[in-house]
Structure formats: structure tokens, C-alpha cells
Amino acid sequence: MEKVLVSSCLLGNPVRYDGRSKLSGNAILARWHEQGRLVPICPEVAAGLPTPRAPAEIASRSGQGNPGDAVLAGHAGVMDRNGVDVTDVFLNAARFTVALAKRHGCRHAVLTDGSPSCGSSFVYDGSFSGVKLAGSGVTARALVGAGFTVWPESGIAALARRIG
Ligand code: SF4
């Protein structure tokens, strides 16, 4: 049975910056979890960040393309709300996650949207004011660049149809 990488917070693990989870109510994800089909990872915690931690956002500017790609290319950074540059930690998080996905033979990842690591359709704009930007997080883009397909929670049904 093909394994699927998944954001740990979607499984109810309290690894988010605010010390909470983002438990998914998705029945397919719950079934895959029971079947041992999921490879959970919180990239940020795996890279050494504590929980809880200051929220972080990609400090990207318009014209830089996908925010996650801009960070991977060294054209943008990731800052936490206290002004601490956490770019290197986020890059390590992405590398670790790609390596984990390869080790388990995953081809697909279900990641929490909106996160500067895991976001796949949107992230926040770096102003810490709730403004969304179309684009992806650093880990999500690193996975795509390495040949994986990244799905938000809303794409689980479509992924299930693809992989059975
Ligand atoms: S980095 Fe990803 S897995 Fe970790 S808390 Fe944020 S969204 Fe969830």
C-alpha cells in the first residue's frame, strides 16, 4: 500500500506555533491513519523549533513568484513575529522532509494549507496581518521540486481516487 506524507498537525498532534493541532475531520485521512499508511511530519518541529513558538511568515515581495520558491532560491526569507530570521531553519525543515518522503517511498503529500512550510495554495504575506498570498510554503515547494505531488486537505478525495 502506497504511503502518503502528511502534516503532523492534521492528525491531531499539537505541533503548531500556538501549541495546538489542526485535526482534520477527513474520513479518508482517518482511514489511512488507521491503516498505517501515513508518514506524519511537522517540518518545523523536525528542524528544531519548539512548540509553542512565535508565528513565522515568508517575507516575500510582489514579483518574486511563488513565495516558497523565492525562499528556496535565496530571494526571500522567513521571519518570525519577533523579527528573528528563521530562514535557515525553514530550509533545513524542507530538506529533512524531502529526505523522509524519499525514504518511505512516498509520491504524494497532504499538507496543511496556509503555513509558511506546508501551505500549498496560499501563505500569508509577511505582514502578520492576516493577508493571504497565492502560493506555497518552503517545504511544499521543495517537495514539488523533488518530484512529489502536494495536496491540501481539500484535495484528499482527489488523491484517494488517484492512488486507490
Ligand atoms: S509546519 Fe506544517 S505540520 Fe508543522 S504545525 Fe505547521 S502546518 Fe502543521
Explain how this protein is built.
There is one protein chain. With 164 residues, the chain is an alpha/beta fold. The chain has one domain (4-163). The chain has 6 helices and 8 strands; from the N terminus they run E-H-E-H-E-H-E-H-E-E-E-H-E-H. It has helices spanning 27-34, 43-46, 67-72, 87-103, 138-145, 156-163, and strands at residues 4-7, 38-41, 56-59, 77-80, 108-110, 122-124, 132-134, 149-151. The strands form 3 sheets. A 4-stranded parallel beta sheet has the order 2-1-5-8. A two-stranded antiparallel sheet has the order 3-4. The chain is globular and about 40 Å long. The N and C termini lie close together (9 Å). The model has no long low-confidence stretch (mean pLDDT 97).
